[in-house]
Amino acid sequence: MTINCKGQLIDLSKPKVMGILNLTPNSFFDGGKYLEEAAIVTQVQKMLSEGATFIDIGAYSSKPNAEFVSIAEELSRIVPVVELLVQQFPAILISIDTFRSEVAAACIQKGAALINDISAGKLDESMLEVIAKYKLPYVMMHMRGNPQTMSTLTAYDDVVKEVLFYFSERIAAARKLGINDIILDPGFGFAKTLEQNYELLQKLEFFQQLDLPILAGISRKSMIYNVLNNSANESLNGTTALNAIALSKGASILRVHDVKEAMECVTLFNVMNS
Fold first, then answer.
1. What pTM was estimated for this model as a whole?
2. Rounded to the nearest 5 degrees, what angle is found at the Cα of 56, between the Cα atoms of 54 and 58?
3. Which site in 25, 99, 118, 201 is 20 to 30 Å from 185, CA atoms measured?
4. Does 40 reside within a domain?
5. Looking at residue 149, which CATH number applies to its domain?
6. Which of 235, 200, 237 is nearest to 221 (CA)?
7. What range does the domain containing 38 cover?
8. Any domain includes 8
């Protein structure tokens, strides 16, 4: 199972780690931490040296009830950082966390290698066309509504069945435009209750029937700290536990704030399955 990132074939039959770099002042865990060039370069160097295959950059917080950010503001936050990182780390594989086609296109032109879209193209009808034009891998996530409304849209008859159906529909739309490399993200914490998040994780292997790589984005989320009665800052151990479960249920990519610990999960998982 491979994806083509800027001519480089990445083998996802062995799990990979995607390190998170938030360029927002208000992200739920590390908001405001990486706004200066030196801090950005230092953090990315750290994540790459710890074993991250991808660096996922976001400039619009998608936490529940996050405030609106204009396209101009998102572009001004993210494009210079893509340029900086491609210059500093020429082999870097940058993932752009955006649901806006204009932001995706601008970042691809500066050297981004894949797009990570929380809306699977539903919040910007031009997104799939941009992905098809530039022929790069596309992470499509399940959600309902948008970051401002999603916490009110959690009524499902069968959450796993409905997320599977959503993906089958979005995959068909992408395939129709000739998009080949698709990665699925069930969207933990996006229009899901605590119980629904754990049902999705418990049944994550069901998504293997779609025959596409699965990305698990669980890192330091409220589904961990609301159960453990701690905080995002204190939820690394819980994150590691759930990442191990996600790997055992077929996840190909772990999207995380803490690369070293996620790589240890992957290393141990690989030994167990060698």
1. 0.94
2. 170
3. 25
4. yes
5. 3.20.20.20
6. 235
7. 16-272
8. no
